[in-house]
Amino acid sequence: MARMQWNNFKKQYPNTGEYRCVVTSRLTKPGSVHLDKKGKILPTPYGLLREWLAKNLNGHWAARQETKKGKTLVILLIADPADVSKLSHFGKLQKPTPQQRAQRQFPFGYRDSLYGNVAKSLGYDI
C-alpha cells in the first residue's frame, strides 16, 4: 500500500509508534543539484529513504521531516509490524531510552553513510 498523509495516518492508526533517525538535510551546498553517472538527479537523504520505503513496504506508512541547523529529523509511522521489521535493513533497531519508550519513539539505523548502498539498490548509478 502507499504512503498516507501524516494526519490521515494518525487518525486511522492512533496508537502507532514513531520510528526516528537523523540525517543531513542535503547532499552538500544549498541550491546545488547532484546527478548520478547517468544524469539522474540524486535525492536528499530523506528523499532517498522515502523512495526506499515506497518500494519496500507493503502496508500503510507516513513520513515527515523536521530540519534544524543542517540536520533532518526523520519521523516514520508504519502500520504493519512486518513492515517495521524491514527497517532492520538499515541495521538492528536501536533500543529506545525509557523516555523515548514512554513517548513511543523508536530510533532506527538509517544514516548518511548508508546513502550510497541505498541509492544503488534503487537503481542510481553512483
Write the layout of secondary structure elements.
Elements: H1 6-12, E1 18-24, H2 45-56, E2 61-68, E3 71-78, H3 81-85, H4 98-102, E4 105-107, H5 115-121
Parallel strand pairs: 1-4
Antiparallel strand pairs: 1-3, 2-3
Please characterize this protein's 3D structure:
With 126 residues, the chain is α+β, with helices and mostly antiparallel strands. The protein has one domain (6-115). 29% of the residues lie in helices and 21% in strands. The chain has 5 helices and 4 strands. A 4-stranded mixed β-sheet has the order 2-3-1-4, sandwiched between helices.
% residues in beta strands:
15-25%
N- to C-terminal distance: 29 Å
Number of strands: 4
Sheet with the most strands: spatial strand order:
2-3-1-4
- The whole-number mean of residue pLDDT values reads 91
Low-confidence stretches: none
> Could you say which structural class the secondary elements and strand pairing correspond to?
alpha+beta
How many structural domains in the coordinates? 1
How many separate helices? 5
Fraction of helical residues: 25-40%
